[in-house]
Write a structure and sequence with these properties.
Blueprint (H helix, E strand, L loop, with lengths): L2 H18 L15 H28 L5 H33 L4
Protein name: Flagellar hook-basal body complex protein FliE
GO cellular component, one term: bacterial-type flagellum basal body
Subcellular location: Bacterial flagellum basal body
């Protein structure tokens, strides 16, 4: 794969990640009416899909059904980054909850 192919693959991944998280770069308003739980559900579904893809490609490499180590590594890296992002979002949500809980009215 040449450098332009990698650049386009990265751009496609960023676009699909933004879409899966509900980030619409073409519109600045929330016309879909999605709630926070909808966004979280979509993000967790995307995380689950990437983990499943990683598991499948790893199993295929181990069993000899595929010999494309580079694609397996890409799938593993995607899953790792998605999981790290999910953990960071979870930590921010817990922190925000604690801040709200500690507020005095």
């Amino acid at each position: 794969m040449d450098v332009s192919g990698i650049d386009s693959s990265l751009a496609n991944y960023q676009t699909s990640l933004g879409n899966s998280l509900g980030l619409n770069t073409t519109s600045s308003s929330n016309s879909s009416g999605k709630s926070f739980s909808d966004y979280m559900s979509d993000a967790l579904s995307s995380l689950n899909d990437s983990m499943s893809t990683m598991n499948t490609s790893t199993n295929n490499l181990i069993t000899g059904k595929t010999d494309d180590l580079s694609q397996v590594m890409v799938n593993m890296t995607e899953a790792q980054l998605n999981l790290e992002t999910a953990v960071q979002v979870r930590d921010k949500i817990v922190s925000a909850y604690d801040d709200i809980k500690d507020m005095q009215f």
